[in-house]
Structure formats: structure tokens, C-alpha cells
Amino acid sequence: MPDDFERMWGDLAPVGRSASSGGYFRQPFASAERELAQWFVEQCAARGLRVETDEIGNAVGWWDVGSGPAVLTGSHLDSVLDGGAYDGPLGVVSALAAIDLMRARGVVPTRPVGVSVFVEEEGSRFGLACLGSRLASGALSWEAARELRDRDGVALGDVVPGAASSLLSSVGTFVELHVEQGRDLVDRGAAIGVASEIWPHGRYRFDFAGAANHAGTTRMEDRQDPMLTYAMTALAANKQARLAGQRATFGRVAVTPNGTNAVPSAVTAWLDARCSTDAGLAELVDAIGRQGSERADRDGTSLTVTAESVSGAVTFDPALAAAVAADHEGGAWPIIPTQAGHDAGILSAAGIPTAMLFVRNPTGVSHSPAEHAEVADCLVGVSALADTLDRLTR
């Protein structure tokens, strides 16, 4: 017998979890994430689902019923560094549990149903978010992806064989369930929501160059300190984002030579920026870069800005979102935007009709060990996903 939702969730809970922080380290193609990938194969086998994989590491467990374009659901199993338990795995576990619930209800879909696991959704290892779904959908070629490198200099092409993927060739619709990464549903008093759009967002590398020198003997006025330029640029990012009502975060920094008693020669920092419009995103990043360059001129340093990953605005099919949200016990589910990127956004941009379900997060916290969803809400999410799959496969 396949495991139920709570048993599956309990099985996943210890995998990749830090004993000190309680957060998760499930980086792509490393031991914890590979253990979860094998767990997924075993759960598919317990349900009689046929597992199909590609040369990138993406996987789909197929419920081979009916005919015609398939309905795909699922999410990802990797995490950010020291992340939460729910971001990604909730969608995979809920998808498997939804198939169980559909079968228990006697539902026999008229179209095939698949449960997907996309690799490297977070971009925590190779720096490009939604890497697996970009490759599977053709939004990114293997030739362009194979030289992506992790922090240790290992190339993606040295980790997986890689090739063009046909995994999504039969997919007609995609539905992703995800923990909400904010407090919209909490404020509305709703357990479930449906996505209307994903804000445009990007990752940008800021390379600050200066001159290494002695921390004690070098007068402050004689320094070319890139750390100072970086610090002022981070403050500028905060101010610009607040003024525009948008998002800007410097969350990762690398310093050379990274010594306590040395003025650094270089600082590399990565900016995550998100805005409500594509034009707003471009304006925000330009403003931050301009202020950083002006500060570099005063500090005797230099700044080079490189866009490493940029995803445009995604508007989910309004008719599909409305159909998914409508006519439920207690009324229609709210339709809300999200500022977080998802595999659903990549598939939608590739022309696959796509919808997203969100499960209420009582803390609103995500990408953190404090990320949470109550079991009762998770079970409502399973039922909501089963209802949605039933509607889409009649």
C-alpha cells in the first residue's frame, strides 16, 4: 500500500535537515536530494505509476489512463541553503496523495495524469533558478546550460549527461501546488488560493574591484576599498526598492582575499530583484547599478553588473485560474499574485496552460527553517488538488 500524506511527510522530514538550525540542505545532485529522488521513484512504484526521466534529472510518474494531452502536477525536491521543509516537497507529496484520493473517490481520468519532480528549481547550486524546467521546456538549451558551474567550479555537464528533453511533449496542462510564501491567505482567512501572476525577477552579479592593502597601515583616505562600495550599494538597493514599493536583496557575498586584517581587493555580491512589471525591474536594477557606479568613482574602485538570470512577468491563463478557483464549498478560492518564481512560471511562458494552488502559511515566512503549513491546511490542499485534477481530466 502507498503511504498516506502524513506518513510521506514524516519520511521526508529528517532528510537533509541540519541538526543545528533545523533548516534543510537539499542541493541538487547531492546526497540528500538524491535520496529524495529515490524516495519519489519508490512512491511512484507503490502506486503503479510509470516513471519517466530525462538526461537532466527531471522525473515524471505517469498514471497511464485515458488519452489525449496529459495533465501534469508536482513541483521540486531541492531546497535553498538552510531552507524550509515545504517549498517544493509539499507540491510533490500533495500530488501523490491527490492521486490516492482520486482513486479512493472512484475517479478515472479521461486523460493521463503525471506527477513531476523538476531538478534545481531554487538555483542554489548552479545559480540558475528553475534550471530543470527551463531545460525540459526548451526555454534553455543544453549547450547553454552545460558550462554552468557551482561554487566549487564543477560544471553541470560533469554532473549529468544532459540532452534535449522530451519529457513534456505530451503535456497539455500543468498545475503546481505550493506553500504560500507570504501572508495573503492568512490575511484573507483562506486555506487555499490560486495564482494570478508571478512578478518579474532576476539575479544580478555585482563585481566590485579595488586594491588589497594592510588594514592597519593604510590610511582611510588612501584606500580603494570595494567593500565600502558594496556596502553603499546595498544601502542604495534597499532605498530604491522601498521608494518604488518593490523588492531588492543582496543575500550572497564573496570577498577576496577574505582576511580580517586586509583591505579586500574584490567583492562579488549577488542581487535578487523583483518588481510588479518588467519595466519596473529594469528601472530598479539600473538605478541600483548607477548609484553603485557613482560610489565606485568616489572610492577609486570599479563596478561591473552582469545579469545572470532574468525571468519576465508571467500572467497565468485567467480563464483557467477562474475555472480552478470557482464553485467550491464555502465559495470561490481567492486569486492572488506571487512574488516568488516557480517551475509553473517557466511552463506557462513556454505556452503550456498553467495554474497554481497555494496552501496557507501561518507565519508568512519562507526560504527559512520557520517556513510552515498546518497539517489540516495541507490536507485541504490535497483535496483541492484532487478536485482540480478531476475537473481538468473529465
TrEMBL record:
Keywords: Hydrolase
Keyword Hydrolase attributed: yes
InterPro entries membership: Amidase_Cbmase, Bact_exopeptidase_dim_dom, Peptidase_M20
Gene3D superfamilies: 3.30.70.360, Zn peptidases (3.40.630.10)
Keyword Hydrolase recorded: yes
SUPFAM superfamilies: Bacterial exopeptidase dimerisation domain, Zn-dependent exopeptidases
Similarity remark: Belongs to the peptidase M20 family.
Protein name, entry field: Allantoate amidohydrolase
